[in-house]
Amino acid sequence: MEECFSCKGEQCENTYSEIEFLSRKILDLNKQLIDSGKAKSRFLSLVANALNNPIAVLLSMIPHLKPQNDLKLETIYALVHEQALTLDFRIQNLVAAAEIENGEVDISYASVDIKDLVDEAIKALRYTIEEKQIRMSVENTVEQKIVGDPQRLYLIFRNLIDNACNYGKEKGNVIITVRENDSRLHISVKNDGEGPKVEYKAQVYTRFAAGPEGAHGLGLGLSIVRDLSELMDGSIDYQTDGTSVTFMVDLPLQTALENSEAFGSNDFFFESFDDAIEL
Amino acid sequence: MIQGSSTFIHVGQLHIDYSPSAISTVLGSCVAVCLYDTRLGMGGMNHYLLPFWNGNGLQSPKFGNISIPKLIEMMISKGSHPSRMEAKVFGGASLNVGPLSNTMMIGEKNIMVAKEILHEYKIPIAAQDVGGRNGRKIQFDLERGKILLKYVARSEVEGE
Predict the structure, then answer these.
(1) Of A30, A40, A226, the CB nearest to B53
(2) What tens digit of pLDDT does each residue of A222-239 get?
(3) Residue B77 neighbours by CB distance under 10 Å
(4) Do A100 and B88 count as a contact with CB atoms less than 8 A apart?
(5) What CATH number is attached to the domain comprising A241?
(6) Contact B59 A273 (CB under 8 A)
(7) Which of A20, A97, A269 lies closest to B112 in CB terms?
(8) What is the pLDDT of residues A192-205, one digit of tens each?
(9) What total of structural domains would you count in chain A?
(10) Sorting pLDDT into bands at 50, 70 and 90, what band is A120?
(11) pLDDT value of position B57
(12) pLDDT tens-digit profile of B100-158?
């Protein structure tokens, strides 16, 4: 009997050292991966900041140039405005990715109107929607304001809707559903068209990975949505049924307004460190 | 008690601050590496969830092998040097008690990756409190370079 126990102990130890050995191996292999990734990271954060300011100026100035009663100029104006909006969106994504990779994302909480966020995201995509004649419908049952990070939530909506419009079929439907259940916020965006094939599942959230049918944008959008959702303790998943694809984001709802200051304030920690161990 | 303001960090965050501020966090199977440079009165803390980045998705500091080198580099960019840093490592508990949950050994791997990377940079580990079954609440007092640690009930450790 005793022998049996010691046997088991030995086995356990072997397994343990084996896992340690394998983990060390992963660490080594991973180093190569990181080195190649690091260059991307550095580039990302440099570019993001250098591009952000000029585009903000452009976007605020362009509306002043809107021509009156000149069809040709109006077409050109729409094209310029559309491209500027697209550029701005891509830069926002670059900035977000750089922030996430630098560990700089500090989720802040404010009172947010979901309807406003969705409307704003749709408005920014109005040219694409018009061009592809997409039928957009919004089913939002969250009427009161919620507590969340407006900027990050907007980016989540914007990316999901952008994705649906770009990958969706022409003259197809895009259905945005937002509902609240068990103090969680469920967001889903469904579009007609084939979704990513199963074999691409791992690639869907990989940054800079080109889509199987050729690249749209930078391949950053969904990786950002996933990371932002996870930073807010939420998750993302998608379903396809051959004719449509639905992306679902699930986020916990904050019940009380915990602004970041109160959350990390001294009071919170002063009390609780009375009989702490000092190391 | 601490004189300056205290910054609370979540998973995937890094923070560097100076005396007399403080940095705090709550850990379950996550690990926090605290670095301190006595000469500058500067210290940094990270908080990571998993040991390795697998090349999928963003290279975010919620992975130990991204987060620890990044923290060290941030300390260097603010004028410190690995030879002047000392490290303290906390967390890596096994929160789920069950026959299978331990096979994942997330906590253990998180601890291992910290030791391995610190060893590589030749940064000595001055103190540690790792493993076990309890979550931890830590506060890094940058004035004295000391960590205050308290064990917390499992229910208090959210999201891990």
Answers:
(1) A30
(2) 889 999 998 888 999 988
(3) 9
(4) no
(5) 3.30.565.10
(6) no
(7) A20
(8) 987 776 666 667 77
(9) 2
(10) very high
(11) 75
(12) 555 568 888 899 999 999 999 999 999 999 988 888 999 999 999 999 999 887 656 65
Compute, in degrees rounded to 10, the torsion defined by CA atoms A107, A219, A49, A148: -20
Instruction: Give B50 to chain A, closest Cα distance, Å.
Output: 12
Does some domain include residue A278?
no
Q: Which chain B residues have a beta carbon less than 8 Å from that of A107?
A: 10
CB contact under 8 A, B59 and A34: yes
Look at A181-185, A204-208, B91-95 and tell me which has the smallest mean pLDDT. Answer: A204-208
Q: Quick one: A75 and A142 in the same domain?
A: no
Beta-carbon separation of A279 and B5 below 8 A: no
Would you state the CATH architecture of domain B6-153?
A: 2-Layer Sandwich (3.30)
Mark yes or no for CB contact A278/B148 under 8 Å.
yes
Identify all chain A residues contacting B22, using CB atoms and an 8 Å cutoff. Answer: 269
> Interface pTM (ipTM) of the complex?
0.74
